[in-house]
Structures are given as C-alpha cells and as structure tokens.
Design a protein that fits this description.
- About 15% of the residues are buried.
- This protein has about 325 residues and is α+β, with helices and mostly antiparallel strands.
- The protein folds into three domains: about 5-110; about 115-185, 2-Layer Sandwich (Ribosomal Protein S8, Chain: A, domain 1), CATH 3.30.1370; about 190-325, no CATH class.
- Strand 7 (about 140-145) and strand 8 form a beta hairpin.
- Helix content is about 25%, strand content about 40%.
- It is rod-shaped, with a radius of gyration of 41 Å.
- Strands 12-11-18-17 form a four-stranded antiparallel β-sheet.
Length: about 325
C-alpha cells in the first residue's frame, strides 16, 4: 500500500479529535479469555508479510491472561491468525478487507497480463510424446497467477500416463497451438509391400513366375525360365524410420527360407513413391549356413514391380511391388 493510501485509511478510521484528546484507558490487569475469538485469514492479493506488519502497527497489542501473555496478531505461513475480542475483531476484519482490496485496486492500475485459457488434446493417430516433440517451437513459459502472485508456468505439458497434452496460454496463442496439433496429428499413410523371390532356371519353371514379370526379368538376365521361390506381403505405415522384417518360406522342398529387413524413408503420396533407406535380403538354407545376399537403398514406385537385387550362380531375384493400402486391406 502506498503511504498516501495508508494515511487516508488512518484518517478514515481515526476517532474524533475530542476522543483522541481523552486520556488513554488502561488495559485491565487480566483479560477474560471467554470474550475472545480466533480468526484465520488468508490474503488474496496483498503480501501476507506486508499485511501483517500494517495490522501490527494499527491494532497490535499484547494480551495478558492469568496464565500467559500472547500477541493478538501472528503470521503463520501465508495466513494471519488473529485473537481478539468481538468488538475489536470487527474493526480488524473491516481493515483486512479494505487493505486487501485497496492493494488489488492499486495493482490494477498497472499493466495486467492477459488471462490464460486451458485446453486439453489427446492425439488420435500419433504418440503424445511425438506430438509434444513436434510442438517444441511453440513451447514457452507464460505468466500465471497463484494466490495473488505471478508465477512462471510451461504453456504446453504432457499428462503422464494418459497421453493428454495440456495447453495453457493466452487465447490467440492457444488457438495457434491447437491448429498446429491438428495438422501434426494425422494418420500415417498405409502401403502394401508385396515381395516375390524368383529363381532363374535352365528348364521349364515349376511353378512359373507371372509371364509379364518373366519378360521383364529376361531383359536383365536371360534364363530359360523363372520359378516362383517364395512370396510374402506386409502392410506398412509409411513413416520415416519405420522398420519391417519378413520371413518367407521357400516353395521348394528343403529350400529353407528367405528374410527381408528394411527401413522406410519418406513417402511421397502425390508421386506414389516410397524411399527405402535400408533393405537387406538373406537366404537361410535348410542344410547350410545363412547367407546375406545383398543390401541396398532405393526408391520404389506404386504400381511397378521393382527388382531390388539379384544374387547367386542360379540367380535369386527379390522383386517388390508397392501398392497404397485401402481400408479394405
């Protein structure tokens, strides 16, 4: 409270001049505790310490009871504890409310921070941690109020355990953050990866690969025929860094199996193109040690049958066809 405000308050609450000139009444030697009551007051806007000091100067006194002497005003944490007679308690309560309210009026004359809004968002498609990481450019400390005091709080936080993102900010920024979350939290495009393992043979293939695919392979390595050795299919969420592994059993008796491991890169939905950052192909014969056939990185296109690699004296081809997955798949 400013000195002028305190002086005005003292003038308003001071007794008339005639009464002020009268000799002060002496405190009784011993007080009757039955006349006293207890009040606990928590300031809403004013500093508890400053309010306690002001009340001590105005109304503070020592209370002499038969068995002890106590103070009528005590600061306990952020609360004022007042022990007084009903008549004096009424005056102290009036002063408390006026002093607390006057402090608020004075503070209101200065610039006030804009009120914060609280919004919640639970991501539907992405992990909450991933959304929170993407919101890093929007994260900041904002000023909030607690018990009448300004405090710094994070404007974007994650509720542990239930995947809810809390946004506490001024309305304009909160709206921009929500718009960003809705743009980020989109379903990952789904694609189908159809693998075929083919073997070049110098006899009539059994079972044969599709005729169109055999014609394509003859342009690479001409053989009498191409047998379908193994097949497999995977559905993939086309997000950068997604990893898949697929085991395909050979159609030949005792042929063992084949293993494909790949890590996807970016998906271009307009061109129907998927980047493969890493693709590894290995054979696991039933009667011998495993062999790594090749490792590559490339881009495959929707609707095409792409030969990812060829290996061996009797060449083994790995062919991949990319399709965009429909809801029915």
């Amino acid at each position: 409270m400013r000195p002028t405000a305190l002086l005005l308050f003292l003038l308003l609450t001071a007794p008339p001049a005639a009464a002020a000139a009268a000799p002060p009444q002496e405190e009784p030697a011993s007080l009757d505790e039955a006349e006293f009551r207890l009040l606990r007051y928590e300031p809403h806007y004013t500093s508890p310490t400053e309010l306690a000091q002001t009340l001590e100067a105005l109304y503070g006194r020592a209370l002499r009871f038969p068995d002890r002497v106590v103070k009528n005003l005590v600061l306990m944490g952020d609360c004022l504890v007042i022990y007084e007679t009903s008549e004096r308690m009424g005056r102290i309560q009036e002063a408390l409310h006026r002093l607390d309210a006057e402090s608020t009026a004075e503070e209101a004359t200065g610039p006030q921070p804009e009120m914060l809004v609280l919004e919640t968002y639970r991501p539907r498609f992405l992990a909450a941690e991933a959304v929170l990481s993407a919101l890093l450019p929007f994260r900041a400390n904002v000023q909030d109020w607690q018990a009448g005091y300004p405090v710094e709080v994070q404007n974007i936080t994650l509720v542990p355990g239930n995947g809810t993102i809390l946004v506490r900010d001024v309305p304009e920024r909160a709206a921009r953050i929500r718009e960003a979350i809705e743009r980020i939290d989109q379903p990952v495009p789904q694609v189908l990866l159809i693998f075929q393992v083919l073997r070049g043979v110098d006899h009539e293939p059994d079972p044969p690969a599709p005729a169109a695919l055999q014609a394509q392979l003859r342009e690479l390595l001409p053989w009498a025929g191409y047998e379908l050795e193994a097949t497999g299919m995977l559905r993939l969420g086309a997000a950068p860094g997604a990893k898949v592994e697929l085991e395909m059993e050979s159609a030949r008796e005792g042929g063992g199996n084949y293993r494909v491991e790949l890590r996807s890169g970016a998906w271009d939905g307009q061109r129907g193109a998927l980047a493969l950052e890493d693709c590894r192909f290995a054979a696991h014969p039933a009667d011998g040690p495993s062999r790594a056939l090749f490792q590559t990185s490339t881009t495959v296109f929707q609707g095409e049958q792409s030969v990812l690699g060829v290996s061996g004296a009797e060449p083994v081809f790995l062919v991949l066809e990319l399709r965009e997955a429909s809801p029915a798949h």
